[in-house]
Amino acid sequence: GCGGNNNNNAGESSAPASSGAASSAPASSPAASGESVKVGILHSLSGTMSISEVTVKNSELMAIKEINAKGGVLGKQIEAVVEDGASDWPTFAEKARKLLSEDKVATVFGGWTSSSRKAMLPVFEELNGLLWYPVQYEGLESSPNIFYTGATTNQQIIPSIDFLLEKGKKKVFLLGSDYVFPRTANKIIKAQLAAKGGETVAEEYTPLGHTDYTTIIAKIKEAKPDVVYNTLNGDSNVAFFKQLKDAGITAADLPTVSVSVAEEEVKGIGAEYLTGHYVAWDYYQTTDTPENKAFVENFKKEYGADSVTSDPMEAGYVAVYLWAAAVEKAGSFDVDKVKAAAKGIEFNAPEGKVTIDGDNQHIYKTVRIGEVKADGQIVELWNSGGPVKPDPYLTTYDWAKGLSE
Amino acid sequence: MLSVQRLEAGYGESVILRDVSITVEPGQVVCLMGRNGVGKSTLVKSIMGLLKARKGSVSFKGTDVTKKAPGERAKKGIGYVPQGREIFSQLSVYENLRIGLEAHPDKAKRRSKEIPGEAIEKFPILPTFYKRRGGDLSGGQQQQLAFARALISEPELLVLDEPTEGIQPSIVDDIQDVIRSIRDEGKTAILLVEQSLDFVRSVGDRFYIMEKGAIVWEGGREDLDDPAVMKHLTI
Amino acid sequence: MEIWVSQLFNGLSVSSILLLIALGLAVTFGLMRVINMAHGEFIMIGAYGAYMTQQVFKSNFSTGLFDAYFPVAILFSFAIAFAIGYLLEITLIRFLYGRPLDSLLATWGVGLMLQQLARSIFGAPNVAVASPSWLDGGLTIASGVVFPYKRLFIFALVALCLFAMYLYIYRSAAGRRMRAVMQNREMAACLGISTRRVDSFTFAIGSGIAGIAGCALTLIGPIGPSIGTYYIVDAFMVVVLGGVGKLIGTVVGALGIGVFNTLFEWGTNASLGKVLVFLCIVAFLQWKPMGMFAVRTRSLDQN
Amino acid sequence: MKSTSILSCEKVTVSFDGFKAVQDMSLELASGELRFLIGPNGAGKTTMLDAICGKVKPAAGNVTFHGKQGTVDVTRRKEHEIAQLGIGRKFQTPSIFSGLTVDENLEIAMAQNRGVWATLRASMKKSDRERIDAELELIGLGDKKRLRAGLLSHGEKQWLEIGMMLLQEPEILLLDEPVAGMTDKETDKTGELLQEIVRKRTVVVVEHDMEFVRNFASKVTVMHEGKLLKEGSMDEVQRDDRVAEVYLGRKRRDFDAIGSTA
Amino acid sequence: MQLSNLLPRRIWLLLGYAVAAAALFSAPLYLGDFRLNLLAKCLAFAIVALGLDLLWGYTGILSLGHGVFFGLGAYAMAMHLKLVAGGSRLPDFMDWMGLTKLPWFWEPFKSFAFAALMGIVIPAGLALLLGFFTFRNRIRGVYFTILTQALVIITVTLFVGQQAYTGGTNGLTGYTKLFGYGLKTDTAKTMVYLATVVALIVAFLVCRFLVKSRFGKVLRAIRDGENRTRFLGYDPSRYQMTAFAVSAALAGLAGMLFVLHVGIISPTMMAIVPSIEMVLLVAIGGRGTLIGAVIGAIIMTQAKSELSASYPDFWLFFLGASFIVVTVFMPGGIVGLARLLNQKLTRRRNADEVNLNPVVRESNGVV
Ligand SMILES: Nc1ncnc2c1ncn2[C@@H]1O[C@H](COP(=O)(O)OP(=O)(O)OP(=O)(O)O)[C@@H](O)[C@H]1O
Ligand SMILES: Nc1ncnc2c1ncn2[C@@H]1O[C@H](COP(=O)(O)OP(=O)(O)OP(=O)(O)O)[C@@H](O)[C@H]1O
Ligand SMILES: NC(N)=O
Ligand SMILES: [Mg+2]
Ligand SMILES: [Mg+2]
């Protein structure tokens, strides 16, 4: 089980709801009253996305606990206000507004799907709040009020396609859930394949939560690709991989590359269904850094010996540390000052060194292609050799011209 | 056999029956009369346990059944023909009758696939309908089915709420005969709700008349010429 | 040619799964008329039942015995879903007969609570259930045409459940009592049937079958707190399309939706396929407004 | 007695999955007639009324209505159109709107324009109120007018439905067992009411209460197994051996005969 | 005697309504940004609930697809806002999806009047169309309900799939201005809030008029016995279509207001769960009473927000439990409970009480 401790906002008393100030006060003067400072944690704790987001919440809470144990930020203890986005985008917007204007949090860590981020974005811009978004996404965005600690496309998807082409896997079958991230990702992949001599043999989307893949698998068999590039999200992965194996297709016959399957998902699918398949991320539980050793150890201590760590969890964990570092540097919780200070901050994360890019507020990350092993762990096959500069608008890729106009 | 003492019952907030007491002796045919809406069916439902008694008691064969569920009362030997037929419309006629057997005291009979002949021979059309769904029958046919369904469990007390409604005259005569022969056998008592004075006169031993939820008149067959009877039954 | 054979098989396979998830609902909704929004959560209970059985076998028995867990899991899933269904009926559902909206509201609430309960006990992420090794692989019909054993197993399981349900509902005295109670609770009571017992037993059976479905679904799909939500709409579609209250309707409804879904998905894509299937349902009801096997009555306005 | 025909059913056949509930049944109703339709249980009386008011569609035969709006082939019309033409129906089991009050049941049954727009703008005029109150008085539900109709007793529902039917003011009233569950006196009262009504309208009554039929019938149609068995005055019908055989029962005929002379 | 009984009650009721209206109108004075926003959202949902109550409580038609109508209204308004926000540029998501020109059907939404009109006309029109194909063919009860679910799935799938035209799963967000004024200013927020209060009151009065009219009585008659009304000469399908269309129009109106308050509309709001939750609002408040729908919407939306804030990990337990408690202990919802208490207190038998069970089984026999 997962016995997450839920430090809730115990001291509700400090939340002011006085009449005049409430509606107009910008969140740039956050409640850092007395000995503590409030931060918001806004993930889906219920609904379909909770299978992924709960663990990110857990790692963020762990980071907060660690920082508090070391004396907090600017001498203040961090107090987490946890809210449930309930897998519903308008709820994310509502809760973001609540955190900023009612709880007056200094910053918010939250979101998983791009849709939830897009829903929160206007609220953060309106109230000049600060959001740390910890999941890989499709790029093409750079809000002054958001820091992106997950990978953008050139830190995950583009290198993975290069990796495949290098291995001679030219005929690619694109399979994704029918929503914005897979569709945009696949658009980029198609352009990249076209430019580099690969071939998109087919492109299929299934609704979120789809659980029958027999027909898709039949289509895959018909199309005879070298590899399936999988941007399915959430539960659909379980159904897809179980049914793929039933159809008698193993990784040796036809490998897949997944960008939304991490250790947590492997555990939920069952490693035997995934053995030998590829994944692309910036962090694995097996990533060999001293920071990661401590991270994994602490996490298991906190949430049980059989819990695992994954890329989005690590990105959420890193986000908390980066924010704390920026606050220390700024000497203030003020959003504008923190943003200014964040530029160029470096941090030795479990995934290795990360640096905040001041222009687009993404971070430099090391890209890693991995293979799923029978024990459910992911072993790195390839890495980018060092942190890759984030390029959310793909300005440095010739073939990507016209994609992002 | 059946004794209702100072019963008060009703629906929701409204009290319909006030201080009603009636008794039915073994082998007796007791008739309950009264204009529309005076509470006859309400009394019958309370006897069956479909309505809770607010005050008073119902006892059957010497035991107090006031708190018993309808099913238990049926198993104790009360058969019921409700007003409005209430047959199981999606069940076949045969199945309707088999359900009627549920309360039969004899386990072998309950289990048997055969519908006992005596109970339905008064309704000769029914066996020809065994395969048809109860709900497809005509109104009168359904009424006959409801009657047969109650008879089939060989109850010791039959509670009949306007059992001849919609039944053709010749079969009404037959039913009259059935009731008389039941009375003559003396094993089964009957509580009969009926509007037709002719009908009750020909079969009844004891008579009660209700008005506004209370018993306002009672007497034997010889008392029926009492002008009060007419008064209570007309508007 | 091969592709048609395997697609036909896939269609039937989808149908069999739809049927499995709808069978329990055919009882709780079709017969009892409880708008049972918690049906999906009973499927979830069954799935977690399989997970628990697996964990017990993993930690207590040798690997050789491990494969035997699945038949045990089916029974356990049935039992636990049955028990929870029974409990739910005697504490809640019994107050809701003849109150469709209230049954919708209350069972929705039950569903929320069960989901949250699962999240608290097993954690929010999915859990994995390893399928027994004797169900690995498949029957090779021709080159490229493989009928996975799991799918064949599900066929058999569905057939068995269906047959058992048919016997129970239409051929046994208990089933006759059950139908009588569902149609007219008061009258059934007046004829000596203990309606309370029949009610709770019936609801429990419907729930238990949902549990079996959940157990079977672990072979092919995810196991998480909210899996019920994926199946609930389809289950209702199947029951309603076939005609509420008719077991045969549920069978044909599942067949129709499954086969057409596969067909359309093959011809177009998964999303459009789904849209087309639902458009077909809309069109079909124009022709048969009460489903394929409508329950006819003479009464003017049936409930 | 010369009168024009208002409804003619010619060789109507109604079948349910092959079972012919009504077969080649013809019925001619004269305007202003009070016709009794009798016959054994399952003879097809209710089904015949169903065919006239559009509840079932005959497999064969014609039902033509010669009403104020000219001659119309009823079998081609939808139920609400038939009702609007002027054919009203009381059903065998009480069919009222259980969630509406007694008053509201009568209000919407009252003769009026049945369109959406009309009901949106309708208001309760004084004359309407009086009509409804008079009707309430007649059916004896005056003090229950604010009660939900679902809470009425069986017999009260029957009365309410009769009241609705009367307010509807159809040209033909089809009454399926209107006096079932009424006391003898109420039955007489209803009979008188019917005789009142037929001065302006045409009435078809299905009834098993022979006393009632004899007291108020001029012409009786007897059905048996979906077919016409006999048509004529009550005396003729009563003397008919086949009618006695299948319907009245020997004993009953004798008993009734005695009753009628007494 | 009846009059004297009635009069004070009327007055109390009117007084209650007046106090409630005053409280609503003055809310901007005492509520903060988030609270006011939340209340505005509640009120928008109250409008949907009114429409659903008209449909379910009074006509007996259960729609589990009102999210679609709500969403269509919301999208109509959102399209306008998106165009205004973008100025002369294409909306961002069209850009990403490679569109170079604004699709023709987006063009007219540059006009606010057109958008506002469409926000009501499109849902009502769709309801009429669906109603035409269902009610006329006597599809009703659960069969109709299932079709509304099919409608949801079809619509959501199309909206998600047609990303270039609808924004896909992300939906439409990022609005800035309305009528040239910044949407994020306090005055703008207050005005939009007040507009919502007015819309709710108008919607309430419209529904009240409908249910009190003879039309409303026919609706209830159809609920009790659709076929019986036919034999009285009414054509139920027309009444059902009208009720369905009005209800859909109200949902559309609510959707438009929702977008203005929440700042985003996406297909998740049209999906099955929100659609069902809209019905639950009515159930909580009390079906068959208009004020119940409003109360239910306000209480449940607030409760959801409060519970999830106070117990983010366990709030579903409380929400689920409260549904159960309502059904078991408060049949007829909050209003039903209030009436019950009132009855208990006054020991009066109310003749025109709510019908808790529209489906009272008459008899399953022959007609
Ligand atoms: N929908 C149906 N399906 C099957 N059989 C039917 C249906 N409707 C009527 N019948 C059959 O048609 C016959 C005539 O029924 P109908 O109700 O017209 O009889 P009736 O003359 O009104 O009898 P009663 O006097 O008992 O009311 C009956 O045998 C009945 O079982
Ligand atoms: N479910 C109910 N809820 C409230 N009141 C009811 C209910 N059923 C009946 N009543 C009321 O109870 C009173 C008695 O009804 P009951 O059915 O006992 O009358 P009855 O004597 O059987 O009349 P009938 O001869 O018409 O069948 C009536 O005034 C009726 O309005
Ligand atoms: N950003 C994602 N994975 O939606
Ligand atoms: Mg009665
Ligand atoms: Mg009849």
Automatic annotation (TrEMBL), chain B:
UniProt KW keywords: Amino-acid transport, ATP-binding, Nucleotide-binding, Transport
Gene3D superfamilies xrefs: P-loop containing nucleotide triphosphate hydrolases
GO MF assignments: ATP binding
Annotated ABC transporter domain residues: 2-235
CDD domains assigned to the protein according to its UniProt record, in alphabetical order: ABC_TM1139_LivF_branched
SMART domains: AAA
InterPro entries listed in its UniProt record: AAA+_ATPase, ABC_transporter-like_ATP-bd, ABC_transptr_urea_ATP-bd_UrtE, BCAA_Transport_ATP-bd_LivF, P-loop_NTPase
Pfam families: ABC_tran
Highest rank taxon of the organism: Bacteria
SUPFAM superfamilies reported in the protein's UniProt record: P-loop containing nucleoside triphosphate hydrolases
Keyword Signal tagged: no
Annotated family: Belongs to the ABC transporter superfamily.
Protein name, per record: Urea ABC transporter ATP-binding subunit UrtE
Gene: urtE
UniProtKB/TrEMBL annotation, chain C:
The entry's keywords: Amino-acid transport, Cell membrane, Membrane, Transmembrane, Transmembrane helix, Transport
Residue ranges of the TM segments: 12-31, 69-88, 100-118, 152-170, 201-223, 235-263, 275-295
Cell cycle among keywords: no
Subcellular location: Cell membrane
Membrane topology (UniProt): Multi-pass membrane protein
Family to which this protein belongs: Belongs to the binding-protein-dependent transport system permease family. LivHM subfamily.
PANTHER family, per the entry: ABC TRANSPORTER PERMEASE PROTEIN, BRANCHED-CHAIN AMINO ACID TRANSPORT SYSTEM PERMEASE PROTEIN LIVH
Official protein name in the record: Urea ABC transporter permease subunit UrtB
Organism: Cohnella suwonensis
Organism placement in taxonomy: Bacteria, Bacillati, Bacillota, Bacilli, Bacillales
TrEMBL record, chain D:
Molecular function terms from GO: ATP binding
Gene3D superfamilies linked to this entry: P-loop containing nucleotide triphosphate hydrolases
Xref: PROSITE patterns: ABC_TRANSPORTER_2
Family matches, as SUPFAM superfamilies: P-loop containing nucleoside triphosphate hydrolases (SSF52540)
UniProt keyword terms in alphabetical order: ATP-binding, Nucleotide-binding, Transport
Domain ABC transporter: 7-250
Domain of life: Bacteria
Name the UniProt record assigns to this protein: Urea ABC transporter ATP-binding protein UrtD
Organism: Cohnella suwonensis
From TrEMBL, chain E:
Family matches, as InterPro entries: ABC_transp_permease, ABC_transptr_urea_perm_UrtC, LivM-like
Keyword Membrane: yes
Main location: membrane
Pfam families for the chain: BPD_transp_2
Subcellular location: Cell membrane
Top-level taxon in the UniProt lineage: Bacteria
Membrane-spanning intervals of the chain: 12-32, 38-56, 68-91, 111-135, 142-165, 191-211, 243-266, 278-302, 314-338
Membrane topology: Multi-pass membrane protein
Extent of the signal sequence: none
Record's keyword annotation contains Ribosomal protein: no
Keywords per UniProt: Cell membrane, Membrane, Transmembrane, Transmembrane helix
PANTHER family linked: HIGH-AFFINITY BRANCHED-CHAIN AMINO ACID TRANSPORT SYSTEM PERMEASE (PTHR30482), SLR1201 PROTEIN (PTHR30482:SF4)
Protein name per Swiss-Prot or TrEMBL: Urea ABC transporter permease subunit UrtC
Name of the gene this protein is made from: urtC
